[in-house]
Design goal:
9 helices
């Protein structure tokens, strides 16, 4: 493997670990803020990435996508929380869920702003870190906001869905990682096209804000 690819993969891995740690820690923080200390008691209210890593979602999937040159997305071990202990009921649970993806969106926005302020360099390790941080965090935001259990977006749908839909979602959520793996395997090209279009959409918004 060329040296550039090794360096790039190291950058991708570093960005993933930082981004997903902040993502999961924000889930735990919002849950704790809303009255549920489950994540804190189980050691998930932490910035230690080891506590949050899922081998497939955090390492294998995003690095595989990076090797293939596709949009990078993934996830981590779900942060445990009890919806019945969260203030605000279903909407409180939805807020816990979106706290993670919104953190990724915020990181992407801030890093894009830095990149734009520096004149949007496209070469060198520094530029690679900034570009990767934007694309990875947007990928995590878009992917995790899909309204499919067990992804974070499903909690928003759960807050407004009728009871029969909720029961179906609760049943599907039991299979968690299997469903995500099947989605990537079966609908890979379609999912990749959607991810690329959604990431480009947000980059265009960022560009208009920073007038690049």
């Amino acid at each position: 493997m060329p040296e550039f690819d090794i360096v790039h993969l190291a950058i991708v891995l570093g960005v993933i670990l930082i981004s997903m740690t902040l993502h999961e820690a924000m889930h735990a923080f919002v849950a704790y803020w809303l009255g549920d200390d489950t994540a804190r008691r189980e050691g998930r209210l932490t910035l230690n990435p080891i506590k949050h890593i899922d081998p497939f979602l955090t390492i294998i999937l995003p690095l595989g996508l990076a090797l293939l040159g596709g949009p990078i997305f993934g996830g981590a071990k779900p942060v445990p929380f009890r919806p019945d202990m969260v203030k605000g009921g279903d909407w409180g649970a939805a807020l816990v869920a979106v706290g993670g993806p919104l953190t990724n969106l915020f990181i992407a926005f801030i890093v894009f702003g830095i990149w734009a302020t520096l004149g949007m360099p496209v070469q060198g390790i520094g530029a690679d870190i900034l570009i990767t941080a934007v694309s990875v965090n947007l990928g995590f935001f878009v992917f995790n906001m899909l309204p499919i259990p067990p992804l974070d977006g499903s909690r928003v749908l759960y807050a407004v869905a009728p009871e029969v839909v909720r029961k179906g979602m609760a049943f599907i959520e039991q299979y968690g990682i299997i469903l995500v793996f099947a989605l990537v395997l079966v609908a890979g090209p379609l999912l990749g096209a959607y991810m690329s279009s959604a990431i480009e959409f947000f980059i265009n918004i960022f560009s208009s804000i920073f007038r690049t």
